[in-house]
Each structure stands twice: as structure tokens, then as C-alpha cells.
Amino acid sequence: MYKLLTTDGSAKRGQFTTVHGTIQTPVFMNVGTAAAIKGAVATTDLQQIKTQVELSNTYHLHLRPGDKIVKKLGGLHKFMNWDKPILTDSGGFQVFSLTSLRKIKEEGVYFNSHIDGHKIFMGPEESMQIQSNLASTIAMAFDECPSSLATRDYIQNSVDRTTRWLHRCKAEMQRLNSLPDTINPNQMLFGINQGGTFADIRIEHAKAISELDLDGYALGGLAVGETHEEMYHIIEETVPYLPQNKPTYLMGVGTPANILEAVDRGVDFFDCVYPSRNGRHGHVYTNHGKLNLFNAKFELDERPIEEGCGCPACKNYSRAYIRHLLKAKEMLGMRLCVLHNLYFYNTMMEEIREAIEEHRYASYKKTKLEGFEMKEEN
């Protein structure tokens, strides 16, 4: 259940109530692909760094350990020891990125596991069944994510099939939620808008899927090779045709600057691997741009990653020490950088919500973006 609290221009400040708690939006979902945040981050850590929603991956968990095993162990929340909302993506993006290993048909997709090559079939019903076994809070519809280089004809046909698949997802989700052994009978379903960079296809698809009255709607197939300007243009064109009274989720995006721009265009939900991936490589976000802690200039730097930051890394350790850990290939260095980056993202979302509430989002965005472009003097 989504409640729009206030707007500032097109920016929305809302609350999304689920069976696993209320999500304050706009929100950044912390990505734990295989039911864990990469970088040795535990769910007990997530509680401390302001995480509202954890995101896990249907495809990866289906392959390992297997969704039926997760169901036997009581579902993903119990398995991970996490009591807040979890969103599972449908597996579509991963399946469609296996270009040489898959074959698309009307019934679904035949593909080979990237782990051991065994043959797998996944269609709308299978994706819903896997996600029901995982018992996530929010399930994503199974869609095709076409290449950004695909032709207009290919994208139109793909979008039409995604719409047909969405009807099947909705019917299967309703069936699964009514079964007596379903762990989460209140599982929600988000549909996905596709259409590449063709605004007219996006708009028509947004209108078609809005009629299904789902729990939320996502923009998929962006940040896959198009420019930032093209992405912002598509968001601007498409979001007005998605229901204002439902959350809008921009999948797989992005940098802090991408998030600030997308919030300005009406997006509520985000997820991205950047904070954890960059952190594992010693790249950390600050309000004065990104730092590479491998740089020699940090060798004797006794300051925290960012002055005033409340994350576990900044409260306890210096740049010099974290750099040493990274250079020595100690896992703790990677872990501290990931914790800092996730805390940075989650704190930025708090600031965004506050700025929208106080109707000063435009000035907040401007100041924040100017800060990111600064290069710290050392």
C-alpha cells in the first residue's frame, strides 16, 4: 500500500506499507544478489547502516542453493536473518544477459546455467513460483530486457511479449498467494516497463501495464549502454504515464548523481551494485567526490573517509589504516569500504526525503551535485 505524503515538483515523498514493515521513499535498496551483500557484510550490519530494503536475485538463488531449499528453511527472511522488506528481481535480466546461452520462446526462455551448463527453463509462472518459494516481500514480473542496440521492430515485439507475460505473472501470483503452504501469502508484484530508448513504445507500454493495477511499477532496460541524457529523457517521458499512487522503481540505477536526477523525475525506488562493487575496489563515496583509497597520498592520512560520517568505518578507522588493509588484501579493508558506501547511499536517501518534505529539493540537488564535482584538496 503506497501513500504519497507530499511532492516537490515531480519529486515524490511517500510511504510503502508491506507485511515486513513500512518503507520510507525515495529509497535505495541494498543489493545482496545471493542473499548476502558482497564484501562480508552481514544482515546485522545492514540494521546499523540504515538499510530499509534488501534486494536478492531470483536467478542466482534458484541455481544456488535452490529456491526449494530456501522454502524448506522458512523463506529468505528466516534464511538470511533479516526482518525488513526484501525485493527479489525476476531473473529476467540475468537470463537475457546470457546471450549465447539462451533461446526465447512465447512460453519463456530456455537457457544454460552459467555455473555448470545444465539446461533450465524459466517463464512467467516459473519465476513467480521461485519467488514465492523465496517468500520475498516484493516479487518482480518476468520480462525481457532487450539490448539497447536492438531494432525498433525487435523492441516492439519484445515489449508486446513482456505484456503478455505480465498477465501470466499476475494470475500465477494470485494463485500462489492463495495456497495453504505459501510462506508469504501477502507477496506483492511489480510490473516492468520496457521499450528501450523509444519514448512512444515506453509510453504505450506504461499505459497498458498500468491497467493491471499492480502494487508498483518499474522502469527496466535502462543504464544498459544508453547515455545518461537518454535515460533521463525516457524517465521524464514515461513516469507521467505510470500510476502516481503507486511506487515507481528505476532498476539497476545508479550513481548518486543518477539517483538525484531520477528522484527529480518522480522515481521512488532504486538499486545498484555500485556502492558494494566500488567499495570492494577501494573506491569510496564522499560529499566531495569519490576517493580511491589505494592512492599513495592516503598513506599517512589520519582522517576518516569523510569527516562527520556516522558509518562504522569512519567512526573507528583512518584512511591510512583502511588503505593499508586494502594493500595487504585484508578482507576487513573491503568490508569497511562497502559499509561506508552503503551508509553514504542510505544517508543520502534520508536527506532526499527531508529535502522533499521541506520543499527545497531543487537547491539540495544543486548543492549535492556541485559537491560531487569537487576534487578534495590534499
Automatic annotation (TrEMBL):
Zn(2+) binds at residues 309, 311, 314, 340. Residues 252-258 are annotated as: RNA binding. It catalyses: 7-aminomethyl-7-carbaguanine + guanosine(34) in tRNA = 7-aminomethyl-7-carbaguanosine(34) in tRNA + guanine. Its cofactor is Zn(2+). The keyword Signal does not apply. Pathway: tRNA modification; tRNA-queuosine biosynthesis. Substrate binds at residues 89-93, 143, 194, 221. One of its GO terms (cellular component) is cytosol. InterPro entries: ArchSynthase1/Queuine_TRR, TGT, TGT-like_sf, tRNA_ribo_trans-like. Keywords: Glycosyltransferase, Metal-binding, Queuosine biosynthesis, Transferase, tRNA processing, Zinc. The active site is at residues 89, 271. Binds 1 zinc ion per subunit. PANTHER family: QUEUINE TRNA-RIBOSYLTRANSFERASE (PTHR46499). Belongs to the queuine tRNA-ribosyltransferase family. NCBIfam families: Q_tRNA_tgt, tgt_general. Homodimer. Within each dimer, one monomer is responsible for RNA recognition and catalysis, while the other monomer binds to the replacement base PreQ1. This is Queuine tRNA-ribosyltransferase. It comes from Frisingicoccus caecimuris.
